[in-house]
Amino acid sequence: MGLNPKLLIIDNHDSFTFNLVESCRRSGGYEIDVAFPEQVSQKTWEEADRVILSPGPGLPKESKGLLHMLSSFLDLKPVFGICLGMQALAVITGNSLIQMSNPKHGYASHIRNYDKSDLLYKNVKCPIKVGRYHSWQINQDSLNDVWVPTAYTNSNVLMSMSHSKLPVWAVQYHPESYITEQGDRIIDNFLSF
């Protein structure tokens, strides 16, 4: 990375995006650009040192340009997907989603089952209280070996995963939410590796 590394935050038209921007600013050291998925060209992606996929409403296939962008550029930069971002990463690598019978919006969960060796959880204390805002989740029966599961809720809902070959991580919860007690540290772990 250069003296002024660039962070590209993909705004999936979500109200949480600028909470995420503020969390990244607190981490420091990055020039932050924000763009909608339909605005991102290969040049925009290549100029960034890291990319974060924001949460967003609906399903990945309903987000204009998101799946095409990820299919085209995923292997070029370190990526961190949040909520809809995690779901989109799962979908483009051949996994499916299922609708939850009990959606979680503004819901606190505790993660006790997580991989302490995973980059995102470096220096994070157990248990991890996280804020959840989702009505869809990854169908774990479809999860292929592209992904390494790294955290679950006590009720066995997949909360995070890392790519088996690329510097790509994803979480189903919102680290930028006030509910997530160690969220800034999780974001900083991605930005500072």
CATH class value: Alpha Beta
| Percentage beta strand | 25-35%
Q: Give the number of helices.
A: 5
| Helix coverage percent | 10-25%
> What is the global morphology?
globular
Name the average pLDDT.
94
Annotated CATH topology: Rossmann fold
**Topology order in helix (H) and strand (E) letters:** EHEHEHEHEEEEEEH
SSE topology:
Elements: E1 6-10, H1 17-27, E2 31-35, H2 42-47, E3 50-53, H3 66-73, E4 79-82, H4 84-92, E5 97-111, E6 113-114, E7 128-138, E8 147-152, E9 158-163, E10 168-171, H5 183-192
Parallel strand pairs: 1-2, 1-3, 3-4, 4-10
Antiparallel strand pairs: 5-7, 6-8, 8-9, 9-10
Helix pairs in contact: 1-5, 3-4
What does this protein structure show overall?
The chain has a single domain, classed as Class I glutamine amidotransferase (GATase) domain (Rossmann fold). By secondary structure, it is of the alpha/beta class. Helix 3 packs across helix 4 (84-92). It has helices at 17-27, 42-47, 66-73, 84-92, 183-192; strands at 6-10, 31-35, 50-53, 79-82, 97-111, 113-114, 128-138, 147-152, 158-163, 168-171. The protein is globular. The strands form two sheets. An eight-stranded mixed sheet has the order 2-1-3-4-10-9-8-6, with helices on both faces. The protein has a two-stranded antiparallel ribbon with strand order 5-7.
Characteristics:
Rossmann fold, 23% helix, 193 residues, two-stranded antiparallel ribbon, eight-stranded mixed beta sheet
